[in-house]
Design goal:
This protein has 211 residues and is an alpha/beta fold. It is 49% helix and 18% strand.
Length: 211
């Protein structure tokens, strides 16, 4: 059995409750009562995400303030933010304001949106080529449509047009992906779990090959 990690030095940490954050020997220590506390170095910690009921002792709160650690309390599944602990003058405020200011320029907004959409379509084309090389009968039609959409995205004149192109590319990809989940009529009968496992394995192999 691999040894359990009990001390971590990281800029971002995720704590899953129920549990409580305390301070032990100058380090933050998160305990759930089921195992040895997980210790965190407050000098390197910048952001802390707490899921479910995670309490913070007074001493731990002082350490978080002292080291300018931002904390977010989320629901157990991480779907809702219950509250946040942030600096009144975070160092990233000026940078974020500059980013917002840049995106008020229609030309720069279009440039950024085009880059995002083109990168997404190019990744779908790369995946489509993989399935084409493996003989999937519907890959050729997918690639033809994605290449046409890639050309349209490169010449799109506004963000709304890019949204439509991105939506069309997503529709084409997921329609093709649905066909991946449907075995040929001549194939032997397999269960849904076996089918999902086979598609997942092929996807993982493709990602491993393109790292």
């Amino acid at each position: 059995m691999a040894p359990r990690v009990t001390s971590v030095s990281t800029p971002v940490a995720h704590l899953v409750g129920p549990g409580k954050l305390n301070v032990i020997n100058g380090r933050l220590a998160f305990s759930t009562g089921k195992a040895a506390p997980l210790r965190l170095d407050p000098a390197t910690l910048r952001t802390l995400f707490c899921y479910g009921p995670v309490g913070v002792s007074d001493e731990a709160m002082r350490a978080l303030f002292q080291h300018d650690v931002e904390v977010a309390w989320l629901s157990a599944a991480g779907q809702r933010c219950r509250g946040r602990l942030v600096r009144s003058d975070p160092s990233t405020t000026a940078l974020r304001l500059q980013q917002y200011q840049v995106l008020t320029d229609p030309k720069l907004k279009l440039l950024f949106a085009r880059h995002v959409v083109l990168e997404k379509i190019c990744s779908q084309i790369a995946a489509g080529r993989h399935y084409q090389r493996h003989g999937h009968p519907h890959a050729k039609g997918l690639l033809r449509k994605l290449r046409r959409l890639r050309k349209q995205a490169a010449w799109a004149s506004d963000v709304e047009a890019l949204r439509g192109i991105e939506g069309a590319a997503s529709h084409a990809w997921f329609r093709f992906f649905g066909k991946l989940l449907c075995p040929p009529s001549s194939a032997p009968s397999i269960t849904g779990a076996q089918l999902l496992f086979a598609v997942g394995s092929r996807t993982l192999r493709w990602h491993d090959a393109h790292r």
